Amino acid sequence: MKRIGVDVGGTFTDLVLWDDDGTVTVHKTPSTNHDPSIGTMDGIGVLAERAGIDPSEIEMFFHGTTVATNIVLEHNGSDVGMITTDGFRDLLHIARKKRPLNYSNYQELPWQKWQLVPRRNRRTVPERIDASGTVLTPLDEDAVRREVALLRERGVAAIAVAFLHAYRNPTHERRVKEIILEEYPGVFISLSSEVASQYREYERFSTTALNAFIGPKTSSYIANLAGKAKAAEVGEDVHLMTSAGGLVTSRSASEIPVSLLTSGVVAGLLGGCAIGAASGFPSVITLDVGGTSADIGVAPDGRLRMKHLLDTRVGDYHAMVPMAEVDTIGAGGGSVAMVDEGGMFRVGPRSAGAYPGPACYNRGGTEPTSTDAMVVMGWLREDSFLSGTMDVVPALAEDAIRGQVAERLGTSLEKAAMGIFTILAHSMTEAISLHSVRKGYDPRDFSLVAEGGAGPLFAWQIAEQLGIPRVIVPGHPGITSAVGLLTTDIRYEVPTTVWTSSAEPDLALLREQMDRLADQATAQLRADGIAEEDITLERSVDCRYVGQGYELRVAAPAGEIDEAWVQQTAEAFHEAHGRTYSQRFDDKPVQLVNIRVTGVGAVPHVRIAEIERGGEDAAHAIKTTTKALFWERDSAEPEWMETPVYRRELLLAGNTFTGPAIVEQFDSTTIVGIGQRATVDAVGHIIIERASA
Fold this sequence. Notes:
Helix 5 (141-153) crosses helix 6 (171-183) and helix 11 packs across helix 12. It is built from 17 helices and 32 strands. The protein is an alpha/beta fold. It is 31% helix and 26% strand. A hairpin with a 6-residue loop joins strand 23 (535-545) and strand 24 (552-556). The strands form 8 sheets. Strands 17-14-13-20-21-32-31-28 form an 8-stranded mixed beta sheet, with helices on both faces. Strands 3-2-1-4-11-12 form a 6-stranded mixed beta sheet, sandwiched between helices. It is globular. The relative contact order is 0.10.
């Protein structure tokens, strides 16, 4: 079977073609941000030609995209109308008590400055359902028709429908959808009971509005890409990565596009988990460094951790959808270095982007970046960028750093370049610490997987600073997110809110709702053509102690829901609470707040194949030596050293070498620090062990 993974980033589109016979073909092409489908399909054509096949031979097409996320960050979504319960028109405006600046009376609140739905388009109708699901006020259908007609006259492209307690009883929302289809056919419709069927009205309203805001443009992009793929006979359908780390079909993604937020970021974490497992180190920290940002994830025993639903934000908005815990910081190859008016030396988060890009790209960019620093230090050579297919002018990098950093700081060109790298590496180190040490995990128990075009340039230093025993550099670090797309299954998570306690559990309610969710998840997988034998169901529960405002998600056991089932779930929560907060209260009853069923439709996964084996001597892979700048651990004095440059494709399993060293390949460059030991393992990953290990 031949399958393709395509991850569209802000700077590059990464593609990997995987054949079950073990053949892997990769390609990297500039993203076409005005229409990402153009770059995607052109890249597929080049990749197929490089592999010597026709695109129609590709049987499965997996895709990660930033389209939905970019719409949110750039505030350029569609005009949205909203229909809600009388008295709740301004819920989106009021939001929560939290403010970005606690004590400022003059701050601009982002969800008010960039409104998802303007107030004039937030329309209310008489209806009311209470928290038990009982109808208190019937839906006024005539009022609904009047408001839909008004929104149609105003030309909104999408309508969000969010009623109070619709998560408990969605009948009114479903009836409004029927009326909209009659009165305004073709408009994008977003129901809170379909998008986020859980309590917390503000987050539910915000997620529903966000789904409508990105819906028309995202669904249009998906339909456009799926149409082009079908015309080229590439796969049966486009499967897209969700923020929870699963795949959905193009149909499902078009209906609930809010599930696609952060999809490419999560794919990088999944790819890191597969890479760590293949090398025998399942607990991984992933460092995915691209041109503008660095994505950091922590996966103990190869398991994704999920964010709390009050922390699942994208840009300035709450998005109450399942999201794997991955953090993004503004630190990448294009991060701009500067000395501000106060004399402070800063690097990032602003990026030079792909155009004009770093000064060394010779595209008109004049600001020094971290890429320019690594060119100055000799780590990135003129003929190493995309195997020499991209022209680089070192003199431009030197001029930018000397004129805008070194001279202003009164230091040498070499120390200025070293400082740019060190500041950026420290930012990544702090982010990893935030997501590991401060959440109860010791980074010394993990391996650091270096991903992205720039991840292997920084990983050696970060491992030394955090005491991480080893760095794993995959065979194709620059396209790890694309590989991650090929390592997961089709997944649908269906949640609902239940209020019950481990002291007096409502077993009938739990059984009824769990069965309903299971039927819903199974029906979605069947609609996608998943065979019965490939469908499995997973249960989870959001739990908390009485009086807490946050829940923790825990896995729930399979089997009959009875008293023993409830107590097992409560014990899982006690354990999770103790690990997260270093406290557990076994004498306190546990509230079961939300229950979830995740339907999993198994698809064939890729397997990382072993490579040819050789001896320890790696001298055959040295293509040249170069002068490069390195420094001892904790030393502020850089030194020019004669450094071997290895060709990655010539390295064999068992080859070993020590740093300082540079390893070059098409999609990335790897740095091995002074005294560090690098070994190529059976599947071709470079394992870099700390000098002090």
